[in-house]
Amino acid sequence: MKSFMKSPVSISVALAGGWLILLAYIFDLDALRTQVLGWVVLVAAAGLLLGVLNLAAVHFGKLRSGTRNALYSFLLIISMFITFVVVATLGPGHEASQWIFTNIQLPVEASLMAVMAVTLVFAAARLLSRRTDLFAILFVVFAVITLAGSGPLLGFNIPLVGDVLRPWVTQVLAGAGARGILIGVSLGTIATGLRVLLAADKPYGA
Amino acid sequence: MNFADIFGGFFAALFTFLIFSYALGDNALFRMVVHIFIGVAAGYAAAVALHSVLLPAFNSQPLSSLVVPLLWIGLLFTKLSPRTAVLGNPASALLVGVGAAVAVGGAIQGTLLPQLAGSASYFSPERLSAAFGDGRFGDALGLLFNGAVILVGTVTSLAYFHFGAQSRPNQVPQRRRIIEIIARVGQGFIAITLGVLFAGVYSAALVALIERLDSLFNFVGRLARLF
Known about the structure:
Helix content of chain A is 82%, strand content 0%. Chain A is an all-alpha fold. The mean pLDDT of chain A is 90. The longest helix of chain B has 50 residues, at 177-226.
């Protein structure tokens, strides 16, 4: 009640918007839901622009203060500005935009993923050296079974692993754990969402 | 191979090398590439939001139907200045409220109900009676066994995340013994699941590594043929 008195408008807007969408879900009010969601998508897109502007402003501040890391901020602002101007004026489908995506974004993303191949091996080895309990052993054993069964090893298929053990492990054993985790995540999402819709949580500055 | 190809291939190869330098430890060149990447990704996302979401909406609809979203967008942009930021709180509240409702609806319709239905499908009378009716007793028993394993795995994995504990005077709060045992079984299922996920991520990382090395060799080979 105290926080409602402090910022009644924000809380009312959050509750009205949230319950409107939730009731439209329950009572199948598709036209209303589409209309409100259409507006909110536009506001969210503007929010994304605002976030990028804020990122640029933060790095511009770092650049002006001339700290040791100013060069990084300079590179970030320049690359952001050039990409934004090219993609926004020519469109994402234009050759120049595709060039940026194919020759900068894609190689860097793929390279970061590739570096993970090395770091993951170190992480697994460190896990076993620091914590040798049943669960760490289960983790490594089933990771090895899944990897060994995913293809021929030096041109040789390990009997039963690829065609029997791996499918059973991935679909039944790991499937069961994944289902538990997913159901837990969805219950957590529902609880968090309801806390916002009941104004118990107010993560919007109220 | 035109100039844009050579130039692009050179950049891609250079960035790949600089990212790979992380294997020797965190360094300034790696951080430079990461900052360029963040800049490009943020600029790209902002440009796509403007070009594919905002501009088409403003070009295709009459201004009168855009008054409401424009009002909210205006309020949101007051957050650019610390002095007017408080005016933007209702717009943030709208995004959070609607986002929470969409998340609740999505979690129920997109995850909870399909996962429960998927777990129960192993005990579906149609599937079981079809298997028993055709005399495929092995298949039916296999279905029941797999269903039982999935049921136990799902329930125990969920129980692992149950952190309700009874507090006793002068003692550390502890879960009930039965919950503790069930949670231990669930921990085993979670360890197996994470092991399988690790293998999947590792395979994807290896594929990315092979693709990057292949593209590097390809670029060098094409460059060598050119000269």
